[in-house]
Amino acid sequence: MSYSKTGIKSWSVSDQPREKYKRLGGQKLTDAELLAIVIANGFQGQSALLLAKTILETTGHSLHTLFEMPIDRLMEFKGIGLAKAIQIKAALDMGHRSVSLGAAHRKSIASSAAAYGQFKGVLTGLAHEEFWMLYLNNANEVLELSVVGRGGFTATLVDIRLLLRKAIQLGAIGLIAAHNHPSGALRPSEQDKKLTEKLKTAAASVDIKLLDHLIIGRGEYFSFADQDLL
Predict the structure, then answer these.
(1) What pLDDT was estimated at residue 214?
(2) What superfamily in CATH does domain 105-223 come from?
(3) By three-state DSSP, how is residue 124 classified?
(4) pTM of the complete model
(5) Cα angle value 153/230/166 (rounded, 5°)
């Protein structure tokens, strides 16, 4: 069907995003339909769905780009005030957070590919660098996945002391680090190599092993362990 500029309530029940969600579940809805549910209502002459589609078109239909969009930028869209902008950001933040919390179900990490599976949801597509850590027990099961540093486009600031303090509090035996390169390049920089060595040495001083360090690109990754750089 083609969407008109009339309000969502004027459509048949089967076409309304909320009713569609109720019948089919969120996996069957488009990103625009899910965003329309968060927005709730549009303004005269434009439905919430058309407003959602307009917003997504400016991001290249990338939810990661929308996640990065500041509140002030969202408020530039007609029909999006402060309250709706915060609703959108809060919904995206919850989704982002749920990925990291979901890793804490003690999944065993036996390879770089398995580690990548934990990191890709939180690191793929970001416009800035972030540094994340998997804390593992002696069976290589995930105790926690959490962000430990956020930086600019070229570097991430990581406080190794705080990172290791958390590892000790969790009773972690192993660590797997990961950070993203917004450019998509996978080759580790000299700074990446130095940070890896520094983290490895510091962890070893408290009997914790750095098992790997991944660089996340655009749908790909580089593993220090796989390349015998640890």
Answers:
(1) 97
(2) Cytidine Deaminase, domain 2 (3.40.140.10)
(3) coil
(4) 0.59
(5) 65
